[in-house]
Amino acid sequence: MPNTSRFSAKSVQRLLLHLLCLVPAAWLFYLAATNGLGANPAEALLRSLGDWAIRFICIALAVTPLRQWLRWNWLAAYRRMFGLYAFFYASLHWLAYVVFDMGLDWPSIVDDLIKRPFILVGTLAWLILLTLAITSIPKLIRRMGGKRWQMLHRAVYGAAALAVLHFWWMRSGKNNFAEVWLYGLILAALLAARWVFQKRKQMQAAAKAARA
Amino acid sequence: MLIRTHNAGFDHGSSSDITPQHLYMSRRELLKLGAAGGSALAVGGAWAQAAKSDGTQPMSTVRSTVPGAISMETPTSFQDASTYNNYYEFGLDKSDPARYAHTLQTRPWTVKVEGLVNKPKTFDIEELLKLSAQEERIYRLRCVEGWSMVIPWVGYSLSKLLAQVEPQGSAKYVEFVTLADSKTMPGLRSGVLDWPYTEGLRMDEAMHPLSLLTFGMYGKTLTPQNGAPVRLVLPWKYGFKSAKSIVTIRVVEKQPGTAWNKAARNEYGFYSNVNPDVPHPRWSQATERRIGEGGLFAKRHKTLLFNGYEAQVGQLYAGMDLRKDY
Known about the structure:
The complex is a heterodimer of chains A (212) and B (326).
Chain A: H1 2-33, H2 41-70, H3 79-101, H4 106-115, H5 117-134, H6 138-144, H7 146-153, H8 155-171, H9 178-211
Helix pairs in contact in A: 1-2, 1-3, 2-3, 2-8, 2-9, 3-5, 4-5, 5-8, 8-9
Chain B: H1 21-37, E1 62-63, H2 78-81, H3 96-100, E2 110-115, E3 121-124, H4 125-130, E4 135-142, E5 147-157, H5 158-165, E6 173-178, E7 198-202, H6 203-207, E8 212-217, E9 220-221, E10 231-233, E11 246-252, H7 259-263, E12 287-290, E13 301-302, H8 310-313
Subunit structure (chain B): Heterodimer of a catalytic subunit (MsrP) and a heme-binding subunit (MsrQ).
EC number (chain B): 1.8.5.-
Keywords (chain B): Metal-binding, Molybdenum, Oxidoreductase, Signal
């Protein structure tokens, strides 16, 4: 039956993408288990997980522009999945901070949050992603309704901006901004692409209206 | 084969400092290798086990008698101490210096000592190596980023060199200028700091016996990534105060600018003494992570005032507000 075969091809595609998204986590787990994280494993793990969190935010935000410009409509089905992987890596990043960097010393963690704004900013970004992840449960999406869900999920731009700010702040004072610029530019380009597409659609609609 | 005696190299101070198993095992590996291949392997004591073709040479040393010079803590492995480095001239990543610093040309090398001194002089590195007995000192090294190591350095008190040039009465500070060679140092392109890297000490800090003019570590000459051929080590200050690959030492009257202070004045003060009570804007300084200790789940250590050298250096800062003069 053609329907079943199409269904299974899609499942294979989905499964492959899941595996691909899990490669960084599996690799880091392997390195951690085999003493391969270098002289300061806690720092290496923390930083790699942070890198992957911001990379997945970029990937999730790239879905719509890619769909619009390259007409890769099949990607749309995976936007939520990439977003959830951003949350997954951000959560591991936060857990690595709490467990390996701070040794679950909660008074010190609270102290850190108050005294070091870059940690507060990172935590806020994670809380936004947490909210978006919870409201991505299918039942809740249906209950919220498409419009409201979409409104709320625009907060991902806020999370992205806070993540870049968090990264910038962490690197400031050591003046090592190359990677911060890279992610900042990617996110700015993705946002600009959306804006350009929107403008173009408006102009096309206006032209259509004028013709009619 | 060179066999070291008690007096010629690192000497374990107590039974708790028994050679770690991995060093012991790798020495056995070396011995097996030597026996099997009949190759002329020189094992220069416990530390030389990791000697590769990194251009380092074994050094003969005496045990230091300077108070506080020998920490009894378990030294960090040579592997960690020579692969996890901040040396921005060779890149911003901790692994960059070990990867790229082999381009550093350490011969010929001279150190110019100038400024408010009666006998300014340019010293050849060979001359510096012989200027005084090379002492082994095991210092705690604390980085401003919140990690620490225990490293057996080789060198002699900086005061021995300064005595040679006779600082004048008006001399209040010492400025250190390090190599900035764009041909061999890819990191200079980054523009992260105002090159060349400079550092400074007050005269009494420079004259303190613990201030070590350093030529080696782990019984061998310094690796390029650790600041060959000559660097400073100031155990009571954050690591960045200990300038690497020094080319000029200038005795001056006014407090000199320092590279990190110029880059971020509010984060890196002139003194930069290790102090658990003065947090860095992005790192609490209350605790530190000892590199190589127990992996991911290792507990952090409490930071000690002056990195644990308060008894030796505390009087240098009597009456000073260390929150203001951080």
